[in-house]
Amino acid sequence: MNRLPLCAILLFAASRMAPAIAAGEPPKDPELQRVAGQLAQLEADPSLGQLGDVDRLKAHQAIDDLAQTTPRSRDRAQALYIAERRVAAAQYAAQADLAERQLEQLDREHDRILLEASRRDADRARQEAERLRLQNTARDEEAQRAQAEQQAQTEQAAGIASNESDQARSLAEARAKAAALAQQEAALTAGMAAGAASPRPTPPPAAREPRGPSMTLSGAAFVPGKASLRNDASTRARINAIVAFVQANPSARIRVEGHTDNQGNPQVNLSLSQQRADAIKNELRAAGIPASQVQAIGLGAEQPVASNATAQGRERNRRVEVIVLRNAN
Amino acid sequence: MTPSRPKIHRIATAAALLAALSGCASLPPPTAEIGAADAAITVASTPDGQHYAADELAAAHTDLAAAQAAMAHNDYDRARQLAAAAQADADLARAKGRALAAQSAVAAKTEDNATLRRRLLDQEPLQ
């Protein structure tokens, strides 16, 4: 082992000697320049240059190693191969980081669309309630006038009265609907605020076929390793948002999917993901959504949305997805 | 025509350095490097990696096998180089798998949002 420092000194001396030995020849190394140029080009890119930093660092190291070899030396081919692969890896890693950021933005946009749709529904219901109220008022006035003018025609008065009770009922129904939609809207708004605070999961790559609108509950909402939900405000808000989302689609079939990361025993993961999906199904049932409308399934680690190699990726893979199935609508 | 004295001196020094360096060639066996390459391959072998970067993963497996063979013949330098190449292949496979999977998810999600927007906001609400 104590040969290592000596070797380092000798290597240093050799590297100093190399230009002297090759004195007279200009130091030209097109291969090194090409690979280093590719990395420099990546780093100059305004949208990618600051991303994928671990792989970029390794690419720099590989280029440094390549610079230590001379064009005709024995180690050249291998060092060039490694440097080329490292630069390509840095390019892909930067693209991956960029695409993952775009996915987070797209998820936020997805929630904004749902929120806006729910807001419009509520507006529409409010307008309908207002229209019925005006109609009712007009009818009240008409009835009063009729009463004041004519007392003889009791059949006619009875007819108006029955009409009146119909009108009152539709008004009450419209008001109830407006109130329910306003509640959903509030829950969605609160849920979005809570969801924005934590890293947002992305859709599973295995499920690219458009199944229908979905919302995702991060695994952070559960007690670690268990199927019970945390009892905090942001979890509650997110659950309420999911309930509102499902209630906004009263006739649709709902699929609840539990997912885990790939750590630990697959059997345990499968059963935990099933229990978590069941827990969300129970939440939906408690909110008045019929159990027959909801299918809960545990998929274990089969459908990751991110790499299980990093802690961040694993966190994103631990999740429950609530999907409004399109074809059953 | 005889070489000048300084040139002889320089060549002699270079020869001495080369001789000394060849003694350095046998560093300890690269067990850790081979282990790291093996681990990098495992990390890269996700479904996305296998789907989008099959060639890179295959290259990593080939390099790792060659590194293990060199190790068995006590050719530690060669084993070290091949292990480094295998690790670079595996890291490339991992990055490529991540990038292509995420880009494909971006395309799907963009279309999904556009459809959702059309269904919910441009026309009648789903009921």
For the structure shown, list the relevant keywords:
heterodimer, A: 329 residues, alpha+beta, 60s Ribosomal Protein L30, Chain: A, four-stranded mixed sheet, B: 127 residues, 5 helices, 83% helix
The gross shape of chain B turns out to be elongated
Mean pLDDT of chain B: 84
How far apart the termini of chain B lie comes to: 100 Å
Task: List the total number of helices of chain B.
Answer: 5
Element-by-element helix/strand order of chain B? HHHHH
Low-confidence stretches of chain B: none
- By secondary-structure content and strand pairing, the structural class of chain B works out as mainly alpha
Q: What structural class is derived from the secondary structure elements of chain A?
A: alpha+beta
Helical content band of chain B = over 70%
Explain what this protein looks like in three dimensions.
The complex is a heterodimer of chains A (329) and B (127). Chain A has 329 residues and is an alpha+beta fold. Chain A has eight helices and four strands. Chain A has helices spanning 3-21, 30-44, 53-68, 76-149, 154-197, 233-247, 266-286, 311-317, and strands at residues 214-218, 254-259, 294-298, 319-324. Chain A has a four-stranded mixed sheet. Chain A starts with a helix and ends in a 5-residue tail after the last strand. In chain B, helix 2 (31-44) packs parallel to helix 5. Chain B starts with a helix and ends in a 5-residue tail after the last helix. Chains A and B meet through helix 1, helix 3 and helix 4 of A and helix 1 and helix 5 of B.
